[in-house]
Write a structure and sequence with these properties.
With 441 residues, this protein is α+β, with helices and mostly antiparallel strands. The protein contains eight helices and twelve strands. Helix 1 packs antiparallel against helix 3, helix 5 crosses helix 7 and helix 7 runs antiparallel to helix 8. The longest helix is centred in the first third of the chain and has 53 residues. The radius of gyration is 46 Å and the shape is rod-shaped.
């Protein structure tokens, strides 16, 4: 950031210096030449006045040309050419000063009756003055750029360090670190941003505390009800009918899994987000979901299978991943059609934490063979409260939120037939095993 500020400021200073300095150099060179020509014109006026003093009323010289007075107006290194009428009316030419000058700057003056005055001076002196003026302006331009670079360096240091500090504070705030920072920077705008961050941190900490308390209360009530249900099912497990006992034991198994899921999600909601997401055996979690939902698919005469690599480890929370996949499998059962395949492979993708580059990920896809998602619903299926099939409209929004909490991404990759994809950070980015486990259900 400091380098970008310094570079942009230097570019502005350099462009401004060039836009002002280059025209100034051109103007100065012309000004030096104009001053020289103005001086020549003034000297010619003096020579003309001397000639007029020596002329009669008819424009002729009254006698021989008096050059002593005229020489006073001619510089030592110049040449003056006079064309005039002598006393006999003959047009004559007289040269005063140096004969050979090389490259010259001239100025002429018409005196009438064919008379003319031409004053020439060497151009070298004028060019030297122009070069000196140009060198002075260039020196000023270089000094301006150096001063601008020094000032931009101070400004970059004064702004870059506070901005980087604010960036780190915002990142810590997003990671769940709500501690206020007493540091201020002496820049009014940055200090106001710091005050807003501190205020936001306090509000978020209070909000998070209230949510955790609410989650704790709800989980307590839910566990109490689940315990009561399990006690009733435990009584049914002692029934004389074996079918009733089998169903009761299956129901108790589901209650136990639900209790475990509640405990895991409550523990995850109370954990410190800065501690990182643990590594998780993705295949085992997917196998559990497929086994739970297989009976429901069998009753509708539809297939459900898991197609995955043998070992996949991702950075994810077990309860969140399991519930997100359950939402997709349930949607495929209720709103989809045909066989449903849950696929898990390694892939390269962009995640929320790495928006600018692709990283190794674990890709979980849930696809069915139904009619898919209507085009008018594609852009809104993840909106909370929106549903195109008279449902609550919470499932997909909740699934996306749970996946994103672990730093992953949930998206609809294909609308017809529906194909949902979950991207999770690969905890082991080594090469994938060549064999594939296929578990038809």
């Amino acid at each position: 950031m400091r380098r970008r500020i310094l570079r942009s400021t230097l570019v502005v200073v350099l462009v401004t210096t060039l836009l002002l300095g280059v025209p100034l150099i051109i103007t100065t060179r012309r000004l030096v030449e104009d001053i020289t020509r103005a001086d020549l014109a003034a000297r010619l006026d003096r020579v003309s006045a001397d000639l007029v003093d020596q002329e009669t009323t008819d424009g002729r010289l009254a006698g021989p040309l008096d050059t002593d007075r005229i020489r006073l107006a001619v510089p030592a290194n110049a040449r003056l050419t006079l064309t005039y009428l002598d006393s006999g009316g003959v047009l004559r030419t007289s040269i005063l000063g140096r004969d050979r000058l090389g490259d010259v700057i001239t100025k002429d003056l018409d005196t009438g009756l064919g008379g003319n005055l031409v004053l020439a001076v060497p151009a070298g002196a004028v060019r030297t003055t122009q070069l000196q003026a140009t060198a002075l302006i260039l020196a000023i331009m270089i000094a301006t750029v150096l001063a601008g670079g020094f000032a931009s360096g101070l400004t970059a240091r004064r702004l870059a360090d506070p901005l980087q500090d604010l960036e780190q504070r915002a990142a810590r705030l997003g990671a769940g670190d709500f501690r206020p920072a007493p540091r201020r920077y002496g820049v009014a705008e940055l200090d106001r941003v710091s005050d807003v961050l501190d205020s936001s941190a306090e509000d978020l900490a209070a909000l998070l505390q209230r949510e955790r308390e609410l989650v704790g209360d709800l989980s307590h009530q839910l566990r109490s009800r689940l315990t009561a249900v399990r006690l009733r099912l435990d009584e049914l497990s002692e029934h004389d009918d074996p079918a009733v006992v089998e169903e009761a034991e299956a129901a108790m198994d589901q209650v136990d899994r639900l209790s475990t899921a509640v405990d895991e999600m409550v523990a995850a909601s109370r954990s410190d987000r800065t501690s990182g997401v643990p590594a998780l055996d993705v295949v085992a979690e997917l196998r559990t979901v497929v086994e739970e939902w297989q009976p429901l698919y069998d009753r509708q005469g539809r297939g459900l299978r898991l197609d995955s690599e043998p070992t996949l480890v991702a950075r994810a929370t077990a309860a969140r991943l399991r519930e997100a996949v359950v939402v997709l499998v349930e949607n495929a059962l209720v709103h989809g059609g045909g066989a449903v395949t849950v696929t898990a492979t390694r892939s390269m993708a962009r995640l929320a934490a790495t928006p600018g580059a692709q990283v190794p990920t674990i890709l979980i896809e849930v696809a069915d063979s139904g009619q898919g998602v209507p085009p008018e619903l594609v852009g809104r299926i993840f909106e909370r409260g929106f549903s195109g099939a008279a449902s609550s409209g919470v499932g997909l929004a909740l699934a996306r939120a749970m996946v994103e909490t672990d730093g992953g991404r949930l998206e609809l990759r294909r609308a017809r037939p529906a194909l949902f994809a979950i991207f999770l950070t690969d905890a082991d980015s080594g090469p994938a095993a060549p064999s594939v486990v296929r578990e038809p259900r």
